[in-house]
Amino acid sequence: MEEHLTLPLLSRLGFFHFFGTKELNEEGAKGLHHGRSLRLTQVHGDGIVKADTNTENRLSGDALMTDQAGVLLTIFTSDCLPVIIIDPHHHAIAIAHAGWRGSLLRIAAKTIFAMIKEYGSDPGVLLVGMGHRIGPCCFEVGSEVWEQIENTPAYSDGVIARKQGEKAWVNIARLNRVQLLDAGVKPENIADANICTFCHPETFNSYRRDHIKGQNMISGVLLEK
Fold first, then answer.
1. 55 φ, ψ to 5°?
2. How far apart are CA 150 and CA 173, in angstroms?
3. What's the whole-number mean pLDDT along residues 71-100?
């Protein structure tokens, strides 16, 4: 089993990224690169931390961004969606943790806007990768969740995959893709691993499937020196 996955769109000279499987732990991820590793205390919100080589580890938030080389930005997910953003023109990077709560708060799009403000990024040239997460085949929610999703400005056909009584099945990647497009990212600049964590127990952890807390998988992005 491979320890991590990569997306060809993000595999650019000067940038390193990965979406870890359940075989890759935090210590193993540190061995993939030469630099300092940063992580957050994730809270399922929309907080964005601008990082550098002196940034304190485990600050509260759900997205990290930097334009400094040698800093590995990481997030941890089980069924939530990891989103990696690369600005090849301004040499800036970001990573976001998009669960359903963070997605309703538009965490990925807000990270784009933060990069525009801090680094002068042009959303039309940003490269975005969406990693493994629970798919619409398995992400069952109650009306207290899907009604909020239907009322979000970024709602579109396909975000709610299907309904049955008070239950619905949500496509969290579709919701984030619509938000990214609304933020100015070009469709051809969005890559999607399109893998459901719930459906692949041999490769990925899934809280929804296994009901075990703390079995998260690491994803990361680094601007190389």
1. -65, 135
2. 15
3. 97
CATH for 4-133+185-223 is 3.60.140.10
DSSP state of 123: G
pTM of the entire structure? 0.97
| Contact between residue 130 and residue 176 where contact means Cβ atoms under 8 Å apart | yes
As a whole number of angstroms, the distance between CA 225 and CA 222 comes to: 9
**Residues 59 and 49 sit within 8 Å (Cβ to Cβ):** yes
pLDDT band for position 163 (50/70/90)?
very high
Gyration radius (Cα) of the chain, Å? 16
Q: Please report, for the chain, the start and end positions of each structural domain, with discontinuous segments joined by +.
A: 4-133+185-223
d(CA 16, CA 24): 16
Q: How far is CA 184 from CA 53, 89, 124, 164, 176, in A?
A: 29, 16, 6, 34, 13
Residue whose C-alpha is closest to residue 155's, from 134, 135, 133, 182? 182
Distance CA 183, CA 173 (A): 15
What is the dihedral sign for C-alpha 134, 136, 141, 145? positive
Scanning the structure block, which residue is given the tokens 């992580």? Answer: 39
